[in-house]
Amino acid sequence: MPISIRSRIAIPYLVLILLVMAALAIYLIGFVGDSYRANLQEQMTVQAQLVGDAVAPWLDDGQHTADLRQQVAYLADVLGARVTIVAPDGRVLADSDVEPETMASHLFRPEVQQALTAGQGSAIRLSDTVRMRMMYVAVPLQEDGQLLAIVRVALPLSEIERDLASIRRAILLAALVAGAVTLVLAVGIADRMLSPLRRLRHAMDRVMQGEFDTHLVPTSRDELGELLLAHNRMADHLKQTMARLDDERSQLRAVLEHMADGVLIADAEGQVQMLNPSAESILDVDAQRALGRSFPQVVREHQMIDVWQAYRETGESQEQLIEATPRGPFVRVVVSSLSGVEAGASLIIVQDLSQIRRLETVRREFVSNISHELRTPLASLRAIADTLRDGALDDPPAAERFLDRMDAEIDALTQMVEELMELSRIESGRVPMRLAPVTVADVVWPAIERLRPQAERADLVLHADIGDDMPMVLGDLVRLNQVVTNLLHNAIKFTPPGGLITVRAEHTADMVTICVEDTGIGIAPDVLPRIFERFYKADRARSEGGTGLGLAIAKHIVQSHGGAIWAESVEGQGSTFCFSLFVAQDVSASR
Ligand code: ADP
Question: Which of 76, 133, 364, 586 has most Cβ atoms within 10 angstroms of its Cβ?
């Protein structure tokens, strides 16, 4: 278990203080014991001298033994000690505790010997008489320079030890109390010292949970105070950094979400970690399902997987164009490393080039179509010119016919050039639409009337179904007539004799839809999306004579009105071409 800083601070202090206390206690116990004994010895010496003075009158001649003994007993009682009077020859004259007659000579007791030689003696030893360890003090009693007796005072050592023990206990108790107080103080001080650290830890926890405004007020100006201030600075810095990172992340997310290129990131194991909406639509996958799955599972396109594998094997960026397949569009794939972010991860960029490819195709076809369209009348003119030069000029009626054909070819060429110029003008927006409220009848009827003879010649029934409640539409009448004319013209051209052509109009609150329906040859589903392109002809052999521009012009006119044009068809059964126009607001319905 790790040792807390509090313990690390408190324990050494405590040990040091306890050691000092113990040393002090040991010293005190020794010192107090010694001085107690010295004191006691001094006290006992004084007592012995006093006893000597008190018993001196009964020592003169040996006649007052009884009195002496009584006095000694009395004094011993008062002093609480054993008192012994020893004659100079060693005989015990009186003793407070023992019968003197039973006692051996005391002349050679160490304290007695010491008193005789040094004037005062003391000893701690086992008493031969009372069989216990005693402390003895003896002093000689003299009168006029003559030794009368030796007075000895003794205390049992057990008593002295008892006193010393209680002193020792008091000292130990004091040391223990001081130790306990020190312990509490040491822990308290350590606690107080560490409180800034604890606050710092809590603050850091909160910063970790994103609460960057967690600031600490330092309570001291020391290193810990500095630490708290440093934490505040760090939290501020972190907040700014996170805010900057958040901004950058949002910008990056916005870029990824709105960019046209598909972006995927796969980790070192090849699992897709991220893909943007463009990648979802180009690869036709759902982000929810794609995330966490392997790159090959997500793209399901072997060419793309090969490019990615090549990058993984070589570690070098790869780039490849992948032709449109039934499962995917025409794309450019770039696989490169995501170094610096995640080792082994790959960044895959998928660019959808289908639109560009389609535009290229349309442009190529346009050039080839226009050359083709020009070649036919030019070849025809060349043939006529050659025929005329080769002698037809000499045959005036034939020459006349050839000139008529030349006229027709030149008319066709002129019409084509005009239509092209018209289309280019409308496309570039140089032809301003003069929008005004017009009736649906005015849009439809002139074209019907103009083309009716042609329809009848082709043995077709031309029928109009326009309700009386049609609102007025907003449009340029001349241009709209041209749209209906173009649609009717096609319907007549592509409907075999005996067919029916119907012009209808329907309306909603703000739109009117005009449709031209025929029972003709219809249009194959695969070419239906392309018929509004310039020069596009579904069946070149059959639509000879047309320029392929009619529908393109119609589309641009309708789009310039803000409307839409579309076609529906069942091959072999007929086609329906419709276009929608805005209702002219604030103008009451009229026919
Ligand atoms: P064109 O001058 O050839 O008629 P358009 O742009 O008007 O040129 O039409 C383009 C092609 O669309 C035509 O060549 C034809 O194949 C097809 N198309 C147009 N209208 C019809 C229709 N009503 N029925 C069948 N095919 C049609």
Answer: 76
